[in-house]
User: Which sequence fits this backbone?
């Protein structure tokens, strides 16, 4: 059962908004007063005033304070994450997956994908061929369990929190089809993707958007980066942290928030595509979320 929450409020730029860019001009450091060469530090705009800083002298950005408002962040959500063999979700075989439930229980899968795990992928998540051969489940059995568990979360009407959900959703969807297993009904899901929420509440963010860096900003513990269970738990904590700091996010019903994220994601990726085009990079960004149906170049 869900409480009724009001629709999204209009975004209003705050006067306290901080903008950080590479400094284009030399200047004296706002902290240590020594010279900052052009391009060697940061130009920080706080409340309309620009100051330059050495990187090590720049003020640490902190997220806006938590409010007392209510919202979906008071209700149970489930975290989901996978690790796979490939950065392209349609080519990725899942080697580990985790679901983290609101009551503190978790479900974990270690899967032997039946194909060698590329070394650069092992370098990211630490899962080796030896590990999956000795302790991994056969993919068809594990993926059937995972698909069933996610379908139950969706049928229960519980929001599913997934950081960069397009990867996990598209990879799982492709894996289920590859093994002839029934698809998850993604169009019935309420997915909350903290990477999209962050892009929406911090439209002028030029720093890293990696899970670990955003965890620091939102004061979320990340036990072990690229461990499926840790990442799933951090995604939940980050989504809750963003909602606690941004009332319009918290008060948007998860079903409406899912629909809003479809549009926010497409706009964020159009901006990224424009950046790639300006740089002359031959790279096509997908605008589809959460499920990619068209293969990227
Ligand atoms: Zn300095």
Assistant:
């Amino acid at each position: 059962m869900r409480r009724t929450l009001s629709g999204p409020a209009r975004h209003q730029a705050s006067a306290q908004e901080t903008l950080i860019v590479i400094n284009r001009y030399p200047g004296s450091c706002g902290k240590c007063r020594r010279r900052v060469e052009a391009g060697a530090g940061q130009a920080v705009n706080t409340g309309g005033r620009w100051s330059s800083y050495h990187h090590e002298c720049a003020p640490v950005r902190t997220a806006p304070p938590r409010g007392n408002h209510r919202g979906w962040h008071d209700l149970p959500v489930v975290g989901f994450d996978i690790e796979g063999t490939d950065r392209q979700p349609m080519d990725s075989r899942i080697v580990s997956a985790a679901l983290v439930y609101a009551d503190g229980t978790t479900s974990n899968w270690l899967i032997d994908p039946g194909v060698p795990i590329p070394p650069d992928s092992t370098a990211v998540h630490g899962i080796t061929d030896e590990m999956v051969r000795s302790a991994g489940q056969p993919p068809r059995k594990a993926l059937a369990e995972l698909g069933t568990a996610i379908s139950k979360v969706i049928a229960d009407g519980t929001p599913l929190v997934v950081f960069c959900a397009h990867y996990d959703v598209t990879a799982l969807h492709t894996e289920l089809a590859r093994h002839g297993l029934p698809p998850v009904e993604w169009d019935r899901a309420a997915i909350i993707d903290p990477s999209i929420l962050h892009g929406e509440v911090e439209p002028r963010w030029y720093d890293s958007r990696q899970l670990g860096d955003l965890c620091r900003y939102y004061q979320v513990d990340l036990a072990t980066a690229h461990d499926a269970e840790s990442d799933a738990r951090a995604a939940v904590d980050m989504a809750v942290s963003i909602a606690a700091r941004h009332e319009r996010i918290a008060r948007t019903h998860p079903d409406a928030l899912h629909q809003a994220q479809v549009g926010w994601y497409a706009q964020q990726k159009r901006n990224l595509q424009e950046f790639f085009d300006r740089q002359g990079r031959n790279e096509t960004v997908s605008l589809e979320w959460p499920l990619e149906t068209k293969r990227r170049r």
Q: What stands out?
A: The CA atoms of residues 112 and 132 lie 5 Å apart.
